[in-house]
Amino acid sequence: MAYIDLNSDLGESFGPWSMGDDVSMLSIVTSANIACGFHAGDPAAILGVLKEAARRSVSVGAHVGYRDLVGFGRRNMDPSSEELIGDTIYQIGALQGLAKVARTRVRYVKPHGALYNTIANDARQAADVIAAIQAVDSSLILMALAGAPVVAQARSSGLTVICEAFADRAYNADGSLVNRRLPGAVIHDPEVVAARMLRLVTEGLITAIDGTEIELEAQSICVHGDTPAAVSIARTVRDTLVVGGIELKSFTDG
Predict the structure, then answer these.
(1) Model pTM greater than 0.85?
(2) Is the pLDDT of residue 254 over 70?
(3) What is the pLDDT of residue 20?
(4) CB 62 within 8 Å of CB 110
(5) How far apart are CA 26 and CA 20, in angstroms?
(6) What pLDDT sits at residue 204?
(7) Membrane-spanning regions, if any (predicted)?
(8) In this structure, which topology does domain 3-253 adopt according to CATH?
(9) How far is CA 180 from CA 42, 113, 183, 185, 248, in A?
(10) Rounded CA gap, 160 and 163, in Å?
């Protein structure tokens, strides 16, 4: 692979509560998953991040989630299909409106947190998110967990899918992410994270938490913006990939 996309979850500050260093991250990543107000983010903060992304020519995606501000979208939920489809359409539409004002546009959709992990294997909720995306704009790309059943499900429904790997998260042997409540679920050492991602891009392999070597198809790498060392990790990953001969560019650039 000659190039890879580097993305991060941004726009998650809410009122006086600051979450992450969005400006610094936008100088590093090539795609930005912007909160849509359901799990995090308020309209003014989201608009500010969109304007900065547009200024830096960073591709923008809708980071849709469960209606769960208190739980930061990380609590499992079981909304009806009508609710999930409506909520997903609502969030994409809201971000599209703000993006238009910021002189950019929404190019893809990446579910957040518990919704992301649920649709990876839950065919019903995955179908709802897919239906919502298609109802808004079938040209929108879905970003999904590499190796998960949702990838084939979305592609068979006609969506373009970008497979994603997580730089700072540990993997189980089956390719799923280690539960955040467990020790070692989040990796904080920038050098360790960067080395893992260079190997993933060049060899297609990553070591699971139990030592198992697993294969992953990934066109994008995520560095979470809400971890304490997020900027350092993202910068180290980018620098390591560039030194390794890998070009960093958004998958929306073709």
Answers:
(1) yes
(2) no
(3) 87
(4) yes
(5) 11
(6) 93
(7) none
(8) TIM Barrel (3.20.20)
(9) 25, 10, 8, 5, 28
(10) 10
